[in-house]
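Input.
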Amino acid sequence: MSLIEDWEVPRRAPGLFDALARERIELERYPIVDFGVPREGPGFARLLRDVERRLAARRWGSGSLQRGPRPDGGGARDPS
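Output.
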């Protein structure tokens, strides 16, 4: 997730979004003014819940390389 404003990207992280796309890393953007707060609280909360849901699905999906028990108590620990 990126919270940086559009003008900051070329100045502070040139090529960041292109590099993420090349590596097929998904990126959600929600630009927030420095030292500011999200302009629309409920929408930002929905975005965070969606990102959390998608990360959890990947972490505990088939073929997961994550270690440790699932938060719902299912699955076995990876012994390594």
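Residues 28 and 47 are 9 Å apart (CA to CA).
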